[in-house]
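Worked example (supplementary).
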Amino acid sequence: MDRRSFIKSSGAAMAGTAAPMFPLAALAADDIGIGSIHDLSGGLDIYGKPMVDALTFAIEEQNAAGGLLGRKLKLFSYDPQSSMQMYAQFAQQAALKDKVAVVHGGITSASREVIRPVLNKHKALYFYNTQYEGGVCDRGTFSTGVTPAQTVGKLIPYAMKKWGKKIYIVAADYNYGQITSQWVKKFALENGGSIASIDFFPLDVTNFGPTISKIEAAKPDMVVSALVGGAHMSFYRQWAAAGLTKKIPLASTTFAVGNEHIVLSAEEADGFLLSYNYFENIDTPENKAFKARFHKRFGADYPNITELAMGTYQGFKLWAEGVKKAGSVEIGKVTTALESGISINAPSGKVSIDPATHHCILNVSIAEVRNKKLNILQTFQQQSPIDTSAVCNLTRNPKDNQQYVIKA
Amino acid sequence: MDLAIIVLIQVLYAVASLVIISSGLAVIFGMMKVINLAHGEFMMLGAYAVIGSLRLGINLWVAIFIIAPIAVGVVGVVLERLVIRRLYGRMIDTMLATWGLSLLLVGVVTSVAGNTTAGVSAPMGSFSVGAYSVSSYTLVIIGVAVALGLAIRLVLMHTQLGLIARGTMQKPDMANALGISPSLVYSVTFAVGAALSGLAGALLAPLTGVVPTMGGAFVAKAFITVIGGGPAILAGLVSASTLFGAINQLATFATTPVFGEVALLAAAIVMLRMLPQGITGRFFRRSL
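After joint prediction of all chains, the assembly is encoded as:
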């Protein structure tokens, strides 16, 4: 066989065998691609790993039930390693190369604002499933996590009634912490409270000694923390080491989302107040059934199903409902279907999409950390995202595309 | 008054942590002229040695003061034998090699322990100064820094080992002619430097999160301190730590941690402009 005919025949053979596996990323002809962009390493992996577990689980469940529209779902998981550049790169790859039907992803608000314009530009549907500071108004994006009006608006009055009126805020130094701390301030002032100080910390700060002394000097009735990531966990350690856990109570808008309550010892975290959509011990048949299935898949010793993991699971379920209703995965049709006010019976209770804001109406609970567990103290049924709906109406103004920021 | 005492304790703590962070580098870079960019990773290994020991049920203090320095010292010996010893006297090459080592160590630890934040709770409780509480562990850090400074001085000035080490670093061929094996001395000195770095990482483990990439937060500060200190190892270390630590902490108290870091870096730039040889290039010149 001469060279030319060898190339010809082997080329033909390769084309024959490789065709089903082509393109290289292996999207079989009629599989539906689901993109997942969550940090699986680096300082934010405490949040990202449970989210990907939940998405993997949701997709496996859907495939076991026959997929969607008779097609199988395939997960494309990208690990941006807690780096913003990689978020942009992977968002491009998901939209252009792997051509996924939807992207679930983004953890910090900074990362969301990196990938949102990229996905907008390439007409890819985007689900942001993290609790965040609210205000995103964009028809191509669905923000399924809870926002400050839903959580902070409940948590702050509750904590003030319990502990007192003077609040000291410590927050992460990027858009989430900056905006959330303004919400805390707003709700505190509305309820007759006062703010001693608001201190911001870059995500890599680990020495909180001077801050802790400053807090003591200000003598607040409570501290509200919106700290984020692995490095900031040392705040709670140093707070406890200075003996303050027992002296000044603490409420947080972020604690336990990365399972901090399990990493820290019981003495370090007992008594902290939190407010989210989902807590593992919500007492409903749906939640019990979900936990049983989840633990069967990931093992009975799975530490805790976090707020963000449940957000991701529910985000996927909402999208799947939209696809079923639309009978298509095409972005325009799915968006219209989702905007008809789709709702699901999720483990956290009923979750429905608010068509005007692309946010969710859902249950919110306040819980207390006790012995490495989160005990629910009070539940508020079906809370609307009134912070975002005060400024954003996509039904009336579908071309709107920005993040509104609270005016303090 | 109470606040003054608290500020004083926090300033002493900032100075002490700079001394602890930088002592290993002072030996490896200051004495041996090896630009050790893997210094932060040596610290990280020390922190992981503590985490690992605790998982095995070993007492925290044993882990910090014995296991971590020995473990990292051993790693130091191995790396010196394999890599560093081929590069003595070639400063720029050591920089490249140790940078590679630092990436390698981060990679190895990531694949073994995972890229997640682990941690230990600070031992001992707190004590009160008037209306304020301070973690007792802060005092341990200050105490260890003082002990470390005294020990370095004692060993280098008053033992034969220290004399041999200093002599060999100055003139290896002369030391060799006098019947001393420079290669052995280099090995031991490098191991001591690595062990000091390991101890630093172990001591800081209860105060910071432990991640494979934690070294990056410390390596710049350590270099700034050692370079700012100048040629005299111990006097330079202590004087630069005092200057930078105090500036950093006072600025932090007055404003925020961000400006504290900015103030430290600004002070370092201004100081190096005025004293290019470091503090001990002009002051305390005849000290160690």
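Two points are worth noting when inspecting this output. The longest strand of chain A covers residues 359-370. Chain A touches chain B at residues 41-43, 45-46, 173, 199-202, 204-211, 213-214, 216-217, 219, 230-231, 233-234, 237-238, 240-244, 247, 263-265, 268 (CB under 8 Å).
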